[in-house]
Structure formats: structure tokens, C-alpha cells
Amino acid sequence: MTSCGVNDEERLARAALTRVVEPGDEHGGRWLREHGAVELMARLTAPRLPEGMLPGAGERRIEGYRTRAAAVRPERDLEAVAAAGGRFLSPGDAEWPRQLDDLGDARPVGLWVRGRPDLRIWALRSVAVVGARACTPYGAHMAARLGSGLAERGWVVVSGAAHGVDAAAHRGALAAGGATVSVLACGVDVVYPRSHAELIGRIAEQGLVIGELPPGSHPTRSRFVLRNRVIAALTRGTVVVEAEYRSGSLVTARAAQRLGRFTMGVPGPVTSGLSAGVHELLRGEAVLVSDADEVAELVGDIGDLAPERRGPVLPRDLLGPAEAHVLEALPAHGVLDGRDIARRAGVTTDEALGRLYELHALGFVERHGDGWQLVRSALHPSNIRRGGA
Fold this sequence. Notes:
The structure is a single chain. The chain is α/β, with parallel strands linked by helices. The chain folds into three domains: 20-71; 99-299, Rossmann fold; 315-383, Orthogonal Bundle (Arc Repressor Mutant, subunit A). It has 16 helices and twelve strands. It has a nine-stranded mixed β-sheet with strand order 1-2-6-5-4-3-7-8-9, with helices on both faces. A three-stranded antiparallel β-sheet has the order 10-12-11. The longest helix is centred in the middle third of the chain and has 16 residues, at 137-152. α1 (8-17) crosses α5 (74-83), α7 packs across α13 and α10 packs parallel to α11 (248-258).
């Protein structure tokens, strides 16, 4: 599954570079693009690096790269991930999700993966569901509902396994027996947060756990932020469920917008600070969504439409245009004879009387001698019975 165009030397060099180059490092990404992984590692581990061989970074920064490069043992990392039931993917592998290439020089050096499914295939039909860690019960409910609904429709739910919205989205997909992918800001053999050991284990068994960092690596604040660009690039669109103005979820959404992916938001109370960031997105280019059907309609293929949304069908809605026109000519209170009703409706007296008898049979009007009036229930259409008078 990891073959096709990537030789062992290239794979080993890229695995080594995941310990040397931090996620999203565009200096390292440019050198990798210009020189290739094998040559870049050779330069970083050479006894002496000639001046100008790695342009764009200062001397101290390059020395940091070289110090890390001298200490890497990629064979150990490959053995460790294999022992955890995982593998290492490089660009050029058959399983590599090519949409990650949209990140340019910020593209991952490679991906460490746990789980059996093919990441490339899963990513083709995936949606990110992200949001606040300290979410409200409403946010958790909506995230779980989106996760299960998307999974039931055959979509892969991608998130970050964090507390709050992320965890709820993963659990929703798992509960539906669906597919879910967790993108971590640490090694795929590291459980973070620790309280999610069971959740991450279930994701690895039923779905995929992926990350840019080698086995044993721990998360940092910057790694969480940079992880979000992978979530955005990997998926067809990003849904944000609850987010404050300064939220990592908004980083994911804005990265998705820059990459030309769909960006969606689930609205909440305008009085809630946890909805303020989502509402700010919705004032821009994001699309408001309320359930999985609406998400799938936006990111899916032609014909993948959400059901038509409308209120309940009332008996009055079933009237023909002529009957409805005559019914509207009757006053809310009081009795009118057929000629007055005909004049108000703009029809002949015979036509008005014919429609009034039909309306009488349906229970909309009642007759008082030569006069007609609305029945009390006609003032409240939802209470009108469908039957005789």
C-alpha cells in the first residue's frame, strides 16, 4: 500500500526529516522541493556545510537543523510505528492524498499513519468537523449529530480528537458504524489528551489516526495550530461548530478558504461567545448549515441534495386556487350573502355559491340562511378538519 514510485532511500530520508523539519516549515519545504529528501539529509549531515548551500535561513537556524539531523535514527521510528500497527507515507506513494500538495512548500514531509483503510481513498470523500474544546451541550449535540449523519451518508468525518466538538464528531461517526480520521499534533503512538485513550484506540481500530510527527513526539501549541492546515487540505470542506473569535477552529476554516475548500458554520445563540467566531465566518464566505444533509449537498456530487425544507402541510394548502380565492373573500367575523362574497372575490354569484358549497363540505364555512361565514376553526388553519361539515 505504500509502494509505487518511492524507493527505500527516499522513504528513509523523509522519515528522518520529520524529526528535523517542524510541520509547516516552508524553508525546509523549499529545500526539500529543490534538492530532494536524500540530498537534503546529506547536506544537513555533512561534516561542513558550505555557505549558501541552504539559502533563506540564518546560521543559528541552520545549525539547529543540523543538530537534529545528526541525532535522527529513522530506522527506529519506522520500526516503532510498525510495532504500533502503523506505517509511514511519502508523497508519491499510492496512498498519499494528493490534495495535500495544495499546501505547496508547507506540505507535510510525510505522514505517520495507524489504521487499516487507505487514506487516499478515504480523503476523497471527507469532511472536517471542528470547534470549541470547551463547547456547550448544544455544540456537543450538533457535532455528534453531524458526525453520525455524515457517516450514515458515506462521508468520512475528520477532526483532531481534542476535547469538545472534535471528540463529539468522532464519537458520532463511530456510533453510526462509519468512517473517521483523527489528525494529531503529536506522534500517532502518543495519546493526547490522555483522557481520550479509549477514543483514539477506537479510531485506530475502526478508522485512521494520522500525524506529521514521528513516534513518541509530544504536542506543542504551535503544532496544534499547524496541524489545522492538514485537516483543511485533506478534506472537501470544513464545518465549524462553536468557536470564539480567537479559536484554532477558525484557523482551520480560514485555511480551507485559502485552499478553495468549502467552509461552513453551524449557528448558535447570538448571546454566546462560543458562537461569535462562527457567526463572523458566516458574515463572510462561509455557508450556514444545520445538519448533515445540508453539508453533503454543498460538498457532494450533483444530485446529492438535501430534502426540501417546509412547514407542515395544512388542509387549507390543499385547496384549489378558485376555492382558496373565495375563502379569502369571507370576513374573519360576521355573515355575508353569496352576492357580496362574489363581489369581493371578483367572480359570478353562481361560481361563488358553487365554491362555497365545496368549502362547506370540507368544513371551512357554515351556512346561515342565505348567508355564509367562516367556521371558528377556519381562523386557525392547523385545526381545520379534513372531512364533512
